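no rush on this but wanted to send it before i forget. theres a chain ive been looking at and ive put its sequence and its fold in token form underneath. i want to understand how the tokens follow from the sequence so walk me through it. thanks a lot i owe you, the record is right below:
>
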Amino acid sequence: MCEITTGRLEVCKDVVGGIDAIYFINYGDYNAAADVVYTASTDTIDTIANVTSLFKYQLKGTNTFDQVITTSRENGTSFVEQTLSVVLKKQDAATHKTVKLLSYGRPNVIIKTRNNQFFLAGLEHGMELTTANVSNGTAMGDLVGYTLTFVGTEKLLANLLDANTETGATGLVGNATAVFGATTTIVAS
């Protein structure tokens, strides 16, 4: 059966839009079926085993994460297209190389919103870098940097992580040892 089990009241106006940071996980660092543990009642991720490094990118400005559910009654299918668009300001050799490697791979991406929520996009299949615009602008005030668009197709909406704050090199979030384990480090330069 596909029956819902809860209702929802009108919510307070106490949130803001936007993304503060993203964290890349190399695809294959964990097995979605074996290494990810959920709270059954909410589909929130409690733990992810075998992730050793998270590659952090701080963001400011116009960055978006959208999810679109598509269903087909005729085919009996449902899937979610996840789209992440980010702007990285300034160009340098290290970021050029990273953008190249991101275009070759399909990383899993954790999105930290301005509301201190963490979502895991590309849980099973990863996120493909579909467009990378490396721009030098025209006018003096134009962007010199990278505009990257990642797209992933998953069975479900991006899961929330059971977390609410980053704590430093020993892990990603408030209960990082519980979510990723004590050996996970954040790489940010």
Observations:
- The mean pLDDT is 87.
- The CA atoms of residues 87 and 126 lie 20 Å apart.
